[in-house]
Amino acid sequence: MTINWSSIKTLVWDLDGTLVDSADDIATAVNLVLADCELKPLAVSEIRRMIGNGAAKLLDRAFEARDGLDVYNKDATYQAFLAHYKVHCCDRTDFYPGIAELVGDCFQKGLRQGVCTNKPHEMAELILRHLNIREKFSSVIGGDSTDHRKPHPFPLQTCLQELGASNHSSLMIGDSAADVGVARAANIPVVVFPWGYTKAPVSSLNADDVLADAADLRRKLRL
Asked: Is the pLDDT of residue 17 over 90?
């Protein structure tokens, strides 16, 4: 899909791997859950490679990596992870370079902005408020805000509806196959940053554009 940059009035951002690097805090919660089950911790670098497709899938991968599937109660472990992560989700999570300033400038220029993430809504809200940027977004849709998760189109469609946005003037900004998939399903253009958690090269995600950094997006939006 060709992006008509001059027509973009609405930006929908992914959170983890796009706006913020949250891997350290996610790793803390994963390792606390492993410790609860008397399993050894994983390195942050290992957990970073496991991130993608939501926390439940991450826990599957973590327990498999520690040969802990025999002590793995999926539902109970997921709830324990959420409890640990709620305590630690703002410890070290921070913006990628230039992102906070870019979001602020987009807001000042009158662009509508939303967040569409597979992270639980409560945690997304905590992080955005901790980083003093929540007011820049008129919609925040989490992985549990609707009956579906990305790449199903409904979360993004819900976000666009709350923003009062049209497809032809909107842009999805992400870092993963789920972000590209949800944009394709909702029929809006999508760009990706190179710094997220995708296991495949970003060039292979078939996004409409691969951004070099925040300054690259700033130039294309003509801010």
From this structure: yes
